[in-house]
Design brief:
Length: 296
Amino acid sequence: MLTVTNVTKKFGDLTAVCDLSFELAAGEVLGLVGQNGAGKSTTFKMILNFLEPTAGSLSFLGHQLGPADLNEIGYMSEERGLYMDMTIEQQVVYFARLHGLTTKEAKARLGDWMDKLHVKGQVTSKIKELSKGNQQKVQLITTMIHEPKLLILDEPFSGLDPVNVAALIEVIKEARSKGAAVIFSSHNMQNVTEVSDKVLMLVNGKRRLYGGLDQVRASFERQKLYLEGDFDWQSLTGYQAIKDDHPGKILTFESEQQARACLEQVKNSPNLEGYRLLEPSLDDIFKMVLGGSKHE
């Protein structure tokens, strides 16, 4: 559905995005991660044709994105933009009509979205009367009310409590199940892991990681070892950190080789009740990449 090929974006001497390529299919969710200033928002703006690439190409449904395609796209920017003096209904209808829906269609869909996202307020409530969290939910409704084929969400989880994060994750999963392609950015690796099929990591505008979650995680060393049993933990060697993980403990090593060496040290112990080498979490991988750790 979306193909980005060797895209570069420069602002004078600054290269915000460098030779970036990736694909996003229908019914697929891509998590875009990276530090502030990595090029995530610039990438979104090029996809939406808000910014023109310095080099490379972007295509949507097999052709260069044009104004007519915007009705098939839902975009929620990191900077929230709602009209404070409008009611929820007025706000949603306004954006829905911009995307080709009739007033009647928008009003008919609004009630279900209010329930689905647990918006606290009535359709007649003004935006300025809502909490920031509920304003964010209304903005999400304006993004999705027209049932877009491509959904672009810039930091959608920012500022949401755990209950509302869970509700948003379910909304993204539902959109995926209906065939929408979803790309979103987030600094919360747990959310990215829970909802994404693929992950793309940018560092200083360059692609550093890209692929399916399992594929990406399998390409990194397993530097954590879970052990369960009655040990003299101080006698074990090579670990950098240790933490409780009931009923055992997790030991962190500098390398997988050191983790395996520790495992060999205890493997034949009668006190060993369980063990496993742990695949790195996405948060671990993020830190490894920024720290320069090698992977396969």
